[in-house]
From TrEMBL:
<dbReference type="GO" id="GO:0003723">
    <property type="term" value="F:RNA binding"/>
</dbReference>
<dbReference type="InterPro" id="IPR000504">
    <property type="entry name" value="RRM_dom"/>
</dbReference>
<feature type="region of interest" description="Disordered">
    <location>
        <begin position="80"/>
        <end position="107"/>
    </location>
</feature>
<dbReference type="InterPro" id="IPR052462">
    <property type="entry name" value="SLIRP/GR-RBP-like"/>
</dbReference>
<feature type="domain" description="RRM">
    <location>
        <begin position="6"/>
        <end position="84"/>
    </location>
</feature>
<feature type="region of interest" description="Disordered">
    <location>
        <begin position="183"/>
        <end position="208"/>
    </location>
</feature>
<keyword id="KW-0694">RNA-binding</keyword>
<feature type="compositionally biased region" description="Gly residues">
    <location>
        <begin position="96"/>
        <end position="105"/>
    </location>
</feature>
<feature type="compositionally biased region" description="Gly residues">
    <location>
        <begin position="192"/>
        <end position="208"/>
    </location>
</feature>
<feature type="domain" description="RRM">
    <location>
        <begin position="112"/>
        <end position="189"/>
    </location>
</feature>
<dbReference type="InterPro" id="IPR035979">
    <property type="entry name" value="RBD_domain_sf"/>
</dbReference>
<dbReference type="Pfam" id="PF00076">
    <property type="entry name" value="RRM_1"/>
</dbReference>
<dbReference type="InterPro" id="IPR012677">
    <property type="entry name" value="Nucleotide-bd_a/b_plait_sf"/>
</dbReference>
<protein>
    <recommendedName>
        <fullName>RRM domain-containing protein</fullName>
    </recommendedName>
</protein>
């Protein structure tokens, strides 16, 4: 019986890649029932990722096998199954990652700012942005520099939609970039009490 459509997330798209192009590429694996390319509010620029829905699971799995890490319009695609977000109990969000980094308090917030530490001084902003764009839209990427000598300080801030940020935090934390193992966690706004973070702040929390 029906209802076995599978929605795929397609990341790291070139801005020139449009819906027709995706429909054509993924149509080689089966019937494409839907293609969606989110655009930035205000500018209507594509956000560098999209969703392609295939009619059957076998065709979707074939598409993931063939298209993940494939080249399209000069970019290396990321293709995986798009998991529906925000379904089920909210406690899925809590305590992911090693030692449970306190989880994400994403309620009521569209965007999350991530702190990226242990960067090589040779890593340009573009590399950081590219790395995070594999997991969703990057709305802002900032490498603070030293006031004295103008050199980068070895860390960055990356702002992403909350759902993408959660995934990026898990995936990028511990990855290597330019020979350094990155540390990623949610950047805490300075002096903010944290929406209901309560005593003890956002980290740690009770075990379990």
């Amino acid at each position: 019986g029906g209802g076995d459509e599978v929605k795929l997330y397609v990341g790291n798209l070139d801005y020139a890649t449009d819906e027709a192009r995706l429909r054509e590429e993924f149509g080689r694996f089966g019937t494409v029932t839907d293609v969606f390319l989110p655009t930035e509010r205000g500018t209507n620029r594509p956000r560098g990722f999209g969703f392609v829905t295939l009619a059957t699971r076998p065709s979707a799995e074939e598409a993931i096998r063939k298209m993940d890490q494939a080249q399209l319009d000069g970019r290396t695609l990321r293709v995986n199954e798009s998991k529906p977000r925000g379904q089920g109990p909210a406690d899925r969000m809590r305590g992911f990652g090693p030692g449970g980094q306190g989880g994400f308090n994403t309620s009521g917030r569209e965007e999350v700012k991530l702190y990226v530490g242990n960067l090589s001084f040779d890593t340009p902003e573009e590399s950081v942005r590219r790395l995070f764009e594999q997991y969703g839209a990057v709305t802002d990427c900032f490498l603070p520099t030293d006031r004295e000598n103008g050199r980068v300080r070895g860390f960055a801030f990356v702002t992403m939609p909350s759902g993408d940020a959660e995934q990026a935090c898990v995936k990028v934390n511990g990855q290597e970039l330019d020979g350094r193992v990155l540390r990623v966690n949610e950047a805490q706004p300075k002096g903010a009490a944290g929406g209901g973070g309560g005593p003890g702040g956002p980290r740690g929390g009770p075990p379990g």
